[in-house]
Amino acid sequence: MLPAIEDDIKNGPEAPKNNMASLTSLMFARFKAGKYPMALLSTDNFSQNGEKLEKSVLTIAQGWEKNGLVPSEFVDYLQDDKKVSFPLSMIDRITPNPSETVSDKLKADGFENYQIFHTPGHTNIAAFTNTEEVHYLVVEDDFPNGRPALDKAGVILTNRDTVNDADEMKVTTCLNPLHTALAVNGSLLGFNSIAKEVSDPDMLNLIKQIGYVEGLPVVTDPKVINPKKFIDQLVNKRLPNPYSPDMPQRIAADTSQKLSVRYGVTIQHYIDDPKRDPKDLHFIPLVLATWCRYLMAIDDQGKPFEPSRDPMLSELQPKVADIKLGEKTDVHAHLKDILSNKKIFGHDLYEIGLGDVVEGYFASQISGVGAVRKTLEDTLSKYAKQI
């Protein structure tokens, strides 16, 4: 627990400093005013956001109760779903940092507030937002005190299971896995723009194989959003949009924390289905190998680059640090601790028959300068299906 939260739990609801404690304090005021019903709707961009919000609020409230700062009835109020709800939501809109390119265009067109301000904390702030016109907000319709007609503003209101299905569709199949494939490949192949990267035929074909061929057959259709149409829109309109100037390097951040969800869930579906076999996957294992190649921090031209932040870099990079492009090496000795790590992939990749596959792709990718591109071309030539 963060020290700021510990302090807020110790000091009680009167003068909270952390945002979550402030929210809990507001709920305590509502409780004292008459135990009025309330929906606390999280639109944080991660899975199970409502449940995480509920856990956070209850952690603080229960800490206050334990310290004798609030009555037990307040905790009961928060746990009464007829009084207080924590709806789930799935939010999807790609919104990178303010772009210098957009800023320059606004300046040229005579707009006054075109500047981007860079804070000491490395946050970029501007009066404009460069984002995409496409957006989705799927919300669990659980509002004990009523709600506005959100559906008239394009919000999809549905039940909890459907929100979960929509979230899994996006995070494990139709968007996030494609993003990560572009992130690690783009960093190695010298791209600094997602829009430019998807104009590359190999990159576009790669994400199509991951989305349409390997992921789509095992995704649960949430019904409120058509998964195939979602991918169609992503690859044909959203990712190629130059006015949403996203970068592979941004998406590559914290990849070790993302792989178990973005690929591990699809792999699990292949394990669970008796008619499927994880060894039928070709492009997901290729991306996992590419991420291991990324950890070397040497691009496909043999030049060093700065990897994006990741909490496991200091642990993982030493395992591949002494590999030299074009030199014979014991790939298994270097990768066995990585590929068997269930924390990273959600699976021991050797136990499910993918460890050796990933090793084979990695061995090809370190065979020399240009080998990442060559391995991708060869894999597409051998396994890609017509879309």
Question: What order do the helices and strands come in, and which of them pair?
Answer:
Elements: H1 3-11, H2 19-34, E1 38-39, H3 49-66, H4 72-79, E2 84-85, E3 89-92, H5 100-108, E4 116-118, E5 124-126, E6 136-140, E7 156-158, H6 160-174, H7 176-189, H8 194-197, H9 201-215, H10 227-238, H11 248-251, H12 259-262, H13 264-272, H14 283-294, H15 313-316, H16 331-339, H17 342-345, H18 355-365, H19 371-383
Parallel strand pairs: 1-2, 6-7
Antiparallel strand pairs: 3-6, 4-5
Helix pairs in contact: 1-3, 2-3, 3-4, 7-9, 7-14, 14-18, 14-19, 16-18
How would you portray this structure in words?
This protein is mainly alpha-helical. The chain folds into 3 domains: 3-90, no CATH class; 92-156, no CATH class; 159-383, N-(1-d-carboxylethyl)-l-norvaline Dehydrogenase, domain 2. The protein contains 19 helices and 7 strands. The strands form 3 sheets. It has a 3-stranded mixed sheet, covered by helices on one side. The chain has a two-stranded parallel ribbon with strand order 1-2. Strand 4 (116-118) and strand 5 (124-126) form a beta hairpin. It is globular and about 70 Å long. The termini are far apart. This is Fructuronate reductase. GO terms for molecular function: mannitol-1-phosphate 5-dehydrogenase activity. InterPro entries: 6-PGluconate_DH-like_C_sf, 6PGD_dom2, Mannitol_DH/Oxidoreductase, Mannitol_DH_C, Mannitol_DH_N, NAD(P)-bd_dom_sf. It catalyses: D-mannitol 1-phosphate + NAD(+) = beta-D-fructose 6-phosphate + NADH + H(+).
